[in-house]
């Protein structure tokens, strides 16, 4: 069949290939099997779930062809940004590249914080680096928590006072 109106024909044919059970929807499992990093590892479950939730307008845990088409555009934008920050074209982002990326995105984060992210999200190696899927996940979570922080930081002073439950509410509504 032909692509529905507003859906890129390439996205439509990829949707049909990814929709393994022919349900007309893409699940987290199907999405995970369709997306790979530069080292041929599949995208991790957390990133796939975050992206499905972002484009799942019905809150069913899956996306239709329109959501999938929008998701592919979203991933391509992140991939372009990722490649811009991957200065040595290694297919992954090193500590220094991550620091530069944060700075260029307007985040004033310490080297210790970038090191913490590498420890949490990079594959274990002597020279840890971040793959595309984890880069998308980190940036989505950073943007979301920054938005939540800014809602509380009305004067844009960089500090807020909040109760423990307010903090937990911010985390649960933005991250889970």
TrEMBL record:
Subcellular location: Cytoplasmic vesicle, COPII-coated vesicle membrane; Endoplasmic reticulum
Annotated EF-hand domain residues: 6-41, 73-108
An example Gene Ontology molecular-function term: calcium-dependent protein binding
Main subcellular location: membrane
Designated name of the protein: Peflin
Domain of life of the organism encoding this protein: Eukaryota
CDD domains tied to this protein: EFh_PEF_peflin (cd16184)
Annotated membrane topology: Peripheral membrane protein
A biological-process GO annotation: COPII vesicle coating
Cellular compartments per GO CC: endoplasmic reticulum; ER to Golgi transport vesicle membrane
Alphabetic keyword roster: Calcium, Cytoplasm, Cytoplasmic vesicle, Endoplasmic reticulum, Membrane, Metal-binding, Repeat
